[in-house]
Amino acid sequence: MKIEELLNHTGEWLRGTGPSANIVMSSRIRLARNLDPAVFTNKAGKKNLESVFIAVEKAAGNISLFKGASLFRMVELDPVDRQLLVERHLMSHEHASNPEGKGLLVSTEEVVSVMINEEDHLRIQVMRSGLNLTDAWSIINAIDDAFAREFKYAFLPNWGYLTACPTNTGTAMRGSVMVHLPALVMTKQINKVLAAISKLSFASRGFYGEGTQASGNFYQISNQVSLGHSEADIIQNINGLIRQVIEQEEQARQALLVQSRPMLEDKICRSWGLLKTARIISSQEAIELFSMARLGVDMGILKNVDHKAINELFIVIQPAHLQKIEGKKLNAFERDTKRAAVIRQKLGGNHV
User: Fold this and answer.
1) In a domain, 254, yes or no
2) Beta bridge partners of 123
3) CA separation for the pair 31, 52 (Å, rounded)
4) Which CATH number characterizes residue 62's domain?
5) CA 234 to chain centroid
6) End position of a domain, from candidates 215, 249, 283
7) Which of residues 219, 249, 279 is at a domain's end?
């Protein structure tokens, strides 16, 4: 599969389906693994990294779950192509910015991606739409077992999987859920909720994960500790926390309907109107407007619009996607005009 082919289909995690999909955009589970006795990536030379890449490539060819998957060498992709993979949440900014010796394995539906030689030799990731951590775990556990039959992992009985970052030691598992919390933001309860999440040893990050700020009222909530906790415990704890967050967001939405319905409807309809008519629009403004549109769909204020259409646009309007659609590099102003044109095209028709 070529990079351009990613533009022709929707990643599974953007489909707007699954449990609590009105508030939970996606669920992700990530495992960090290192090969034994290979040198960890932070100390590895070019030959070390290449030997790991070849070992993973060979192993993937023997695993049925990777049938039809694409394997990209980062050094063979230009910066726009690498950024597109970041925008689709298939790999990290770090993986894109320092491509030497690195690779990315992507399944056909973008459910599974494996970063090769990022911070660890393997960063295995599974993403599902909605609140679906259990399903994501079932898939990633099978992949992990399949890789373990192909080569030996760095592992100690008392410490678990050995990783480049000590906080990942243990199961080396991170569960993460992307939630849309506009009502908690609008009712000024979000800081209290995020503070409570932090006290419970969970992390909250922005739309693109670690090192990013929340935008469009989206937050990624994940466990911070894996040592001393089983995978089942981690999933259970995250699910329990997310259900509480969902309940608080639903209560805030109902409060807005009862106490401030005209204001809410006006904000949503103005956002929708701008999206359908704007000629120049920045990515940040578009994301904020789409957040309101998504809320409007959830609350029945916008008719005949589905989550999938809006979720797709969150990704398609990003800089690298716009440049791939246009077939050339664009400066900031050109991206803003192209973004507005793409949005108008995708949202044609009257839905209010």
Assistant:
1) no
2) 32, 115
3) 17
4) 3.30.590.10
5) 19
6) 249
7) 249
Helix H, strand E, coil C: the string for the chain is CCHHHHHHCCCHHHCCCCCCCCCEEEEEEEEEECECCCCCCCCCCHHHHHHHHHHHHHHHHCCHHHCCCEEEEHHHCCHHHHHHHHHCCCCCHHHHHCCCCCEEEECCCCCEEEEECCCCCEEEEEEEECCCHHHHHHHHHHHHHHHHHHCCECEECCCEECCCCHHHCECCEEEEEEEECHHHHHCCCHHHHHHHHHHCCEEEEECCECCCCCCCCEEEEEECCCCCCCHHHHHHHHHHHHHHHHHHHHHHHHHHHHHHHHHHHHHHHHHHHHHHHCCCCCHHHHHHHHHHHHHHHHCCCCCCCCHHHHHHHHHHCCHHHHHHHHCCCCCHHHHHHHHHHHHHHHCCCCCC
pTM: 0.91
User: Structurally, how many domains does the chain consist of?
Assistant: 2
Q: Would you give per-residue pLDDT tens digits along the chain (352 residues)?
A: 678 788 877 788 888 888 999 999 999 999 999 999 999 999 999 999 999 999 999 999 999 989 999 999 999 999 999 999 999 999 999 999 889 999 999 998 899 999 999 999 999 999 999 999 999 999 999 999 999 999 999 999 988 999 998 888 889 999 999 999 999 999 999 999 999 999 888 988 876 555 445 677 999 999 987 777 889 999 999 999 999 999 999 999 999 999 999 999 999 999 999 999 999 999 999 999 999 999 999 999 998 887 788 888 989 999 999 999 999 999 999 999 999 999 999 888 544 4
Q: Is residue 236 part of a domain?
A: yes
195 and 337 in a single domain? The answer is no
Q: Which domain holds residue 332?
A: 261-346
Do residues 209 and 293 both lie within one domain?
no
CA distance 230 to 252: 33
CA dist 44 and 48 (Å) reads 5
